[in-house]
Amino acid sequence: MVFGRLLRGEGKARFKCVYTECGSLCCKKNLVVLNEDDAAAFERLGINIAEATVNMGLNEFLSLLGSSQIKQLEGLEVVCLTKDSDGNCVFLNLEEGGCKIYDDRPYFCREFPFKFSKGGIKKKDPICPGLGQGEEMDVSTLKDVLGLSRLDVKPPLLVGDESKLKTSKALMGMVFRLMR
Ligand code: SF4
Ligand code: SF4
User: Fold this and answer.
1) What's the 63 CA to ligand 2 centre distance in angstroms?
2) What is the tens place of the pLDDT at every residue in 50-82?
3) How many folded domains does the chain comprise?
4) How many other CB atoms are there within 10 angstroms of residue 48's CB atom?
5) Which ligand is nearest to the CA of 23?
6) Which of 16, 38, 161, 170 lies at a CB distance of 3.0 to 4.6 Å from 34, suitable for a disulfide?
């Protein structure tokens, strides 16, 4: 996932999801990391989390984002959605395209292809062909359309070494920022 960085938050963007045209590209390319609200939603829906997710070492995940290894994070893992051997997300409807749990999809999926900050749109992922399509929207409208307006951005759900999870809030804050 390589995001184009913007120097400061943009206040408007044009976007329209064209999943029938792109073949749900993001549901094949992206590695979706859950937060605690996503995991709670899965539980409410009766989704078997053990089947729907796979854990990945936090350092391994950070290295995918281009970050160097952090020794204090060894033993911690992020929780990602399972993919098949072709990279398709476990919830991708392979016959018709689209998401089988669209109304309850994880925060990461809702926010894609954007990352928002308090200043507006912080990043856009150029792999998404829906960028630049449709009507121009301000950030508030965009968040409504993406189903984000009532959700808070949360750090990733981390599992593993309990003592490490409690050791350093500053370190976890740094991890959160790296992931955004
Ligand atoms: S968000 Fe972008 S990449 Fe994902 S399905 Fe929609 S148009 Fe395709
Ligand atoms: S949960 Fe749904 S929206 Fe998210 S990657 Fe999987 S299929 Fe796509």
Assistant:
1) 23
2) 999 999 999 999 999 888 888 888 999 999 999
3) 1
4) 9
5) 1
6) 38
Protein residue closest via CA to atom 4 of ligand 2 = 109
**Residue 116 included in any domain:** yes
Ligand 2 neighbours (beta carbon < 6 A): 27, 30, 32, 81, 89, 91-92, 99, 101, 105-106, 109
Return the exposure string of 26-37: e unless at least 16 CB atoms fall within 10 Å of the residue's CB, then b: bbeebbbbbbee
DSSP at 103: G
Structural domain includes residue 98: yes
Residue 1 counted as domain residue = no
pLDDT in tens, 16-59: 999 999 999 999 999 999 999 999 999 999 999 999 999 999 99
Residue 3 resides in a domain: no
Q: Which ligand is nearest to the CA of 88?
A: 2
Structural domain of 54: 10-178
pLDDT of residue 12: 94
Could you tell me if the CB of 25 is within 6 A of ligand 1?
yes
pLDDT tens for residues 101-147? 999 999 999 999 999 998 899 999 999 999 999 999 999 999 999 99
CA 163–ligand 1 middle distance (angstroms): 39
Please calculate the CA angle 85-48-144 and round it to the nearest 5 degrees: 85
Residue among 122, 89, 84, 123 nearest 19 (CA): 89
For ligand 1, is residue 129 a contact (CB within 6 Å)? yes
